Amino acid sequence: MKNKEINLIVLIEVQPGKAEEQINLFKKLQPLVLNEKGCMEYKLSKVAGSDVEFVITERWASSEDLAAHDLSPHMQEADSITPTFRAKPATVLQLNKV
Hints:
Number of helices: 3
Largest sheet: 4 strands, antiparallel
Helix content: 25-40%
Shape: globular
CATH class: Alpha Beta
CATH architecture: 2-Layer Sandwich
């Protein structure tokens, strides 16, 4: 089942006072990612009551599309920038329907 839809939740924690850097990077990336082959959803939310926690929800048509996304130039560039404002690496959770 290689072409099964992929659903991800990405948990992000930024350094205190650096939330705007996460938001601005996402605003730059979102249109690029939404135009990628197989991207069905790419959305950033702020965790209620927190100044440092965010969640990205992603839906991809296939694991191949997600793999291509991870290797895209804009995501490679983003991965080089995020350590400057994130408190730790993001936690990526892949969801399975029950």
